[in-house]
Each structure stands twice: as structure tokens, then as C-alpha cells.
Design brief:
The strands form two sheets. A four-stranded antiparallel beta sheet has the order 1-2-3-4. Strands 5-6-7 form a three-stranded antiparallel beta sheet, with no helix packed on it. β6 and β7 form a beta hairpin. α2 runs antiparallel to α7. The protein is an alpha+beta fold and 252 residues long.
Length: 252
């Protein structure tokens, strides 16, 4: 099926110079992972009830309930229930530190300072937590959109629109356009996303180490670089690939 597509759906005179390995499942999983995180952090930004559930007092009550249930399950004696009529002050002072920590030790001093700092900064949580969750939502959304769109699946050299058939046969390198195929945003599409750019706008790093597992290039006025994985890739025409991305090597 891929061979059929190459013969009947490609542009006349086009030359394929790179075809990456099939990583659709991996990048689709990555896209869904980023999309799930985006929805999660966006929901936490607008739903503030989760913050009350994570406060120390509520967590301690839930932990005590789980401990009591486990003791009952294995037949161990359980602690006597606490009297709610003692008030919040008695409850807070009943167990200042975990068992095994001396109140005069260095760790207890640091815990006391940490709790005091937490109480002082609690009034800023209503502003800081929405900002923090919003930044995480934006970061994961941008990662899911841009990363699969910058991983190259296939590169094809296409002759320019003003080049005739005789020019293609006489010119050593008549190609003027580069067709780039990527996975698209969140890699949700099975078909690649294609777009064409002039070769004059394509640039590659001059001093790129050859032992890397990927190559990269960038296009003028397009944010973020494109990534080509070498593992499992097929370089159909190494000569055209070299003169396209590394023309300075040919002039040496």
C-alpha cells in the first residue's frame, strides 16, 4: 500500500530523501497523555474543592480512618475515638509531631518553622495555585501540539512550479521545494500532515555531531526545530539529502 501511494500519489519528478520509522503509536500515546494532563490541570484551575481535600487536617483524618480499617481487618486493637467536644485547639495540640520525633530535636524545630511558614502563606494560595495549574495546562497543551508536529515522518524534494521537463533532465538538482510530513497535533490523525516550503528557507546546524540518534533542521520564520529520528529511518537518496541540508560540505 505504501508503494502504491509513492507511485500514484506523489508529484511528478519528486524525490524522497527521508522516511522515518513508524512511531505513530508512541506519539499518539504521548499526545493523549498531554491532552489528559491539559484537561486535568484545566479542571483543577476552575474547581477549587480539591485543595480543601489536600489540607493537612483532612489528610490526617483520612489516614487515621484507613489505619483503623486496616487494624479491624487484621484483628488488631483500635484506638479509642477522639472526643469532638474538646475543641479544635485540643485536637491540634493532641499530636503535634509524629511518633519518634523529640520536640526539642532539630527536625522538630524545622517542622515547626515549616508549619508557621505554611500558615503565613496560606492567604496567597488562592492566587498561586490557579496560576500554577494554568501554567501546567498551557505547557502540556503546547507540548502535545508542537512536539508531534515537529517530528518528521517523510521528506520529499519537489521541483519548482516554473521548472519544465527538459530542465529537470538537464539540471543536476532542479528541486526548489521541500515537502514535510509530520504526525500533526497530538498525533491523532493516521494520515500525515503535509506542508511545503522553499528550499531557501531550510537550514541545518553546520556542526552537528554524527553520533546523535536524531538530526534536526529549522525553517526560517517557523518556530521550533524539526526532528528526524535516525533509528529505523530510511535515507532513500543520500546525495540529495546531503546537498539539501549540508550544502557547505559539497563546497569543501
Amino acid at each position: 500500500m505504501r508503494l502504491f501511494h509513492r507511485f500514484f500519489c506523489s508529484v511528478p519528478g519528486a524525490v524522497e530523501i527521508y522516511r522515518g520509522g513508524d512511531r505513530l503509536r508512541f506519539y499518539r500515546f504521548l499526545g493523549l497523555f498531554c491532552l489528559g494532563h491539559t484537561l486535568t490541570w484545566t479542571g483543577l484551575t476552575y474547581y477549587r474543592g480539591w485543595y480543601n481535600l489536600t489540607e493537612r487536617e483532612n489528610v490526617q483524618l483520612r489516614f487515621d480512618g484507613i489505619t483503623t480499617s486496616v487494624r479491624k481487618l487484621f484483628g488488631f486493637p483500635t484506638e479509642a475515638p477522639k472526643d469532638d467536644s474538646l475543641g479544635d485547639e485540643a485536637v491540634s495540640n493532641s499530636k503535634t509531631f509524629p511518633e519518634g520525633i523529640n520536640e526539642s530535636s532539630f527536625l522538630a524545630t524545622q517542622l515547626r518553622k515549616l508549619r508557621a511558614f505554611s500558615e503565613e502563606t496560606r492567604k496567597y494560595d488562592e492566587i498561586l495555585f490557579p496560576v500554577f495549574t494554568s501554567l501546567l495546562a498551557v505547557a502540556t497543551f503546547a507540548m502535545g501540539v508542537y512536539l508531534p508536529r515537529r517530528v518528521v515522518r517523510r521528506l520529499t524534494l519537489i521541483p519548482g512550479p516554473g521548472i519544465s521537463s527538459s530542465d529537470r533532465s538537464n539540471s543536476p538538482s532542479p528541486h526548489r521545494m521541500l515537502e514535510i510530513e509530520t504526525y500533526g497535533a497530538f498525533a491523532l490523525r493516521s494520515d500525515p500532515v503535509r506542508f511545503t516550503v522553499p528550499l531557501e528557507k531550510v537550514r541545518a546546524p553546520k556542526n552537528e555531531p554524527s553520533n546523535l540518534q536524531f538530526s534536526q533542521f529549522f525553517i526560517k520564520n517557523v518556530p521550533f526545530r524539526f526532528i528526524m529520528e535516525k533509528q529505523g529511518a530510511e535515507f532513500s537518496n543520500p546525495y540529495e539529502y546531503e546537498i539539501t541540508f549540508y550544502p557547505h560540505k559539497k563546497t569543501k
